[in-house]
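Appendix B. Raw example, untouched.
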Amino acid sequence: MTDPAESPSSVASSASGSRRTSQPCPVHSNKRGDLFCLTCELVICSKCVTDSRKHGRHVVETVKETYTRRFQETQIKLDTLDRYIDAQRHNAELRTRLLEELRENEAALIDRLDQIINEAKAEVAEITNEKAIQLDPLRLTTKLKSYYRDELLTEIASLSDGEFLAQQADLNIRCDSLMSTSVHSTLVAPVDCCNVSCSLLPTIEMDSHCINIASNSSFNISYVDQYGYGWSLELEIKTLINTLPTVCLNKLQLNVKMEGSCKPKGNFQVVLKIVHDLPLKTITQHIPFKSLGPPKSRNISTEIADVRNLRNEGFVTKDHLLQLKLGIGPEDPITERNCYQQILEMHRNKICTLKCELANWKKFNISYFRVEECPVLKSKRSKTKHSTVIMDEHGTKWQLKVSINGMKHKGFIGVFLTKCNGSKGWYDYFIELIHPQSEKHNRIVKGCYLFDVDPLELPQFMTIAFLDTFMDDGTLRLRFGTRKDP
């Protein structure tokens, strides 16, 4: 038997020494196969070479030479395999020793980690208790100062101008006493910690308004917040008559309604300030309300103040004017996020719609036409202008005729689209009167028509328009286009 520790090369050498050096020819059994055909990879004899034409021109050498050369090639591969196995065995031994060391140190590492975690927990608990002990007196002091401040503001608001001037020095002393540093406030030092997080309240932008409470009983205010939502606000003066004794009260009431179909869901609030010449007397109210989103919309109605008291306290001027500041917006960060997400989705949908419209408009043959020297609006005169002839990709020629009949600031506009030549059939068209300031105020007509008469002049656009709003230095601008319906 062969020793298991013996190398493959020694095994191969011993095997080559004991191997039979000859074997019978597979074709001629009475001959020894001492030759090897390299072309056919077959053991043959000398008779196969001389008697058969099959191996006559093949490369032939002795079996011993072929065997010696090829056995050496196999021997080289076996030696390489032997070295590879030794390297893998050595690598496995190194990894085994490393694994044993890790297992030995595993328990010690776990104990050390537990110790570090316990020490960190104890340190955090100690700091937390210390800060909590310092924070409780500060909270109490802050609440007391807030209470005294509110009492002071209420007292100041109830004073007349003369009483305020007489008591101003005492009021200033009381304010200074509230701002003095207490023993409790010195206990807490600023904590510099990058991991402190807080919830920021949304900012509400304020708009100023001035209303005349003597001329009307209700005032409508349109308000657009910073998120693009439109709000309709109505300030209404309601007269309430109380008996025993009979007293007439004029209550200022606020009605809030959201405009448009885009209505977010969440908690909102109205911030209302009734402005006074003295900043300390300015009345500020926060009116919360909840929006349920589309299709439901909740309108709020709440009483603000008594108009008679506002007059007595100097909020209303001699010209019966009342100054207000209004703002509407989300009350919490979640509602603010909902607003941003809804507005973002609305703008994305609008962009997709505009892209589709742009792709559709690119298929039209578009031309522009300027109508200059329009009739004087104070006199009733008419004027007709023709555009230059445009030609589409099919060779069809088109022309636009504009007829204007001006009278004062209004005018009658007639637009005639003419097909000068080309094949008959259905055509898509549009005619647009361009507003000089805003594209969204343009007047446009579009449709599809069967042009079966050649030439054809068809009135496609007739309207009563405020010409002074569409004129730009006495010039009207129009845009028109055609496309053959496939």
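End of appendix B.
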